[in-house]
């Protein structure tokens, strides 16, 4: 074979399968290969050529598959980018999908580059917005130093999503602004309160949060829930402290004024404490002068009150009579009778004897005043109802006079006003029974609780109410008889045959005017037991010549005056008449 190879002519520059086959035939002829060998070798050559073609085809198929995969990946990436960016269509996308694979890839590549750049820009926008949202949220939560790393969700980078974040950011910015205003308002309130109370504002506000100092910028101040809550609590504590101090100062100012009035202190001396007395009637919000409620000012007022307390011992008699006058005024307003002359004589005797300590005497009178106020307070509700009852009885008396006036419906001047008053009076009169019941119940409860009789200017109130109830009952019975008689006459006039001959009319019972309740509750009791009444003052208390109140209760002239259309009283004819206590 080596010899054959040495004799192989040089290969021509242009070699083809045909020339090679011819050369191979020459070699076989020279060698003397048989036809079988030649066929076998030709088949081998064909198989080897086929394998080469197959390898080339497989490589081409793989190359085409890679390109198709790249094209498919490019399209998928294009769709993903469009979806992430929220773009339904894009201007740079090629409309035609024809052409070779490489041509299609070349057409998509520029669009992908633009979308990738747009995605990077969009991620930056999202990061900026979300960073601000995270920062403000941390400020609101109070976790400024514990900010977590931010990750942008690249699956949704649409403009709609970005706008949602912008809306969220605007809401947070507004909330931050509102919180900042609240913080500044609370800090300002703390400053004003500290100024009024004479306290250190810096230490008070920095105790809530160090950033609330005036040296820090406005945007650097804490706006967290804890800061707002602590500031609000601080304001509440300071307001409560301000309220307590004001009450204390007003109490001291009241004591000062009382002592000055008792001892006729000159204005020059009083003016030294104008800064104390100027707030005696001020509300908590009205006190805004710096240092107005400082502790040293309150201590100064306490010292002055103590000094005046020691000084008033020299003016005991004058002070005692002023206390007695106050006590008498309380009892007078509560309609309680006391022996004023005996009380004053007792005070004079105690002071003149010198056997009583001035402080003890004043303390005892102060206790009497306190007890008198308590008793007056316990009587207050009943007295208010008594006044309502008296006013209702006055309207009842007026209504009776009005109903007897035959010209009440004439178109005279003021007739419409009287008509309106009559309507209101009827409503008020109908409420009298319930008012009396309530007054009786409360009076009896008061008497049972204190085991004593409730008197009104010396008159037992229950006795007067019992007589009033009896008189009202009699009045209603009389009105019932009149109505029954009227119905009888009306029926008889309509059908005289049913009733036979016309009977003689019964003695008419004219509407009588009740002169007032009696203490013993009887209609014909002795005059000595009747309550003192003033028949011409419609329920007002009479006055004596010297202007003092009479010790008796003057009741209205008429306690019952109801029209025929008025509802019957709650006390029926079969109900027992309340007994006189």
From TrEMBL:
Its main location: cytoplasm. It comes from the Eukaryota. One of its GO terms (biological process) is cytokinesis by cell plate formation. GO terms for molecular function: microtubule binding. Residues 476-559 are annotated as: Disordered. One of its GO terms (cellular component) is cytoplasm. Keywords: Cytoplasm, Cytoskeleton, Microtubule, Nucleus, Phosphoprotein. Residues 521-542 have a biased composition (Polar residues). InterPro entries: MAP65_Ase1_PRC1. The keyword Cytoplasm applies. Residues 476-497, 543-552 have a biased composition (Basic and acidic residues). It is found in: Cytoplasm, Cytoskeleton; Nucleus. Belongs to the MAP65/ASE1 family. PANTHER family: FASCETTO-RELATED (PTHR19321:SF41), PROTEIN REGULATOR OF CYTOKINESIS 1 PRC1-RELATED (PTHR19321). This is Microtubule-associated protein MAP65-1a.
């Amino acid at each position: 074979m080596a010899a054959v190879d040495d004799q192989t002519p040089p290969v021509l520059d242009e070699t083809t399968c045909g020339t090679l086959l011819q050369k191979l035939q020459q070699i076989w002829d020279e060698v003397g290969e048989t036809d079988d060998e030649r066929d076998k070798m030709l088949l081998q050559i064909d198989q080897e050529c086929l394998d080469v073609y197959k390898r080339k085809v497989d490589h081409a198929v793989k190359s085409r598959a890679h390109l198709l995969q790249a094209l498919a990946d490019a399209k998928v990436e294009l769709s993903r980018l469009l979806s992430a960016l929220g773009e339904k269509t894009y201007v740079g996308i090629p409309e035609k999908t024809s052409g070779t694979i490489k041509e299609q890839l070349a057409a998509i590549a520029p669009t992908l580059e633009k979308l990738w750049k747009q995605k990077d820009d969009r991620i930056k926008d999202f990061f900026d917005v979300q960073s601000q949202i995270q920062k403000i949220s941390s400020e609101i939560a109070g976790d400024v130093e514990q900010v977590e790393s931010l990750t942008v969700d690249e699956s949704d980078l649409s403009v709609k999503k970005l706008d949602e974040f912008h809306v969220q950011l605007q809401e947070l910015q507004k909330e931050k602004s509102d919180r900042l205003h609240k913080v500044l308002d609370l800090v300002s309130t703390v400053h004003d309160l500290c100024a009024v109370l004479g306290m250190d504002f810096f230490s008070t506000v920095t105790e809530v949060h160090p950033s609330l100092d005036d040296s820090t910028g406005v945007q650097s101040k804490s706006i967290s829930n804890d800061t707002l809550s602590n500031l609000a609590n601080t304001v509440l504590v300071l307001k409560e402290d301000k309220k307590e101090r004001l009450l204390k100062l007003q109490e001291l100012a009241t004591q000062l004024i009382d002592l000055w009035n008792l001892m006729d202190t000159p204005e020059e001396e009083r003016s030294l404490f104008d800064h104390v007395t100027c707030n005696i009637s001020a509300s908590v919000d009205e006190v805004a002068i710096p240092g107005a409620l400082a502790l040293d000012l309150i201590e100064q007022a306490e010292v002055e009150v103590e000094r005046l307390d020691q000084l008033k011992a020299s003016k005991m008699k004058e002070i005692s009579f002023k206390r007695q006058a106050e006590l008498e005024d309380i009892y007078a307003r509560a309609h309680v009778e006391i022996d004023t002359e005996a009380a004053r004589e007792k005070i004079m005797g105690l002071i003149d004897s010198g056997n009583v300590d001035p402080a003890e005497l004043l303390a005892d009178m102060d206790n009497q005043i306190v007890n008198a106020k308590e008793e007056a307070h316990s009587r207050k509700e009943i007295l208010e109802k008594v006044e309502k009852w008296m006013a209702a009885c006055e309207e009842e008396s007026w209504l009776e006079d009005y109903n007897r006036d035959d010209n009440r419906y004439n178109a005279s001047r003021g007739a419409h006003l009287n008509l309106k008053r009559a309507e209101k009076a009827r409503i008020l009169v109908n409420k009298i029974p319930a008012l009396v019941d309530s007054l009786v119940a409360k009076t009896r409860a008061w008497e049972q609780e204190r085991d004593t009789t409730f008197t009104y200017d010396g008159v037992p109130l229950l006795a007067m109410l019992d007589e009033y109830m009896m008189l009202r009952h009699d009045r209603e019975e009389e009105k019932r008889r009149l109505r029954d008689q009227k119905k009888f006459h009306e029926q008889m006039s309509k059908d005289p045959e049913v009733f036979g001959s016309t009977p003689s009319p019964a003695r008419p019972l004219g509407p009588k005017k009740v002169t007032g309740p009696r203490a013993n509750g009887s209609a014909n009791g002795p005059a000595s037991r009747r309550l003192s009444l003033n028949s011409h003052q419609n329920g007002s208390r009479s006055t004596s010549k010297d202007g003092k109140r009479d010790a008796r209760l003057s009741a209205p002239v008429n306690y019952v005056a109801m029209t025929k259309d008025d509802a019957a009283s709650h006390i029926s004819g079969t109900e027992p008449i309340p007994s006189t206590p």
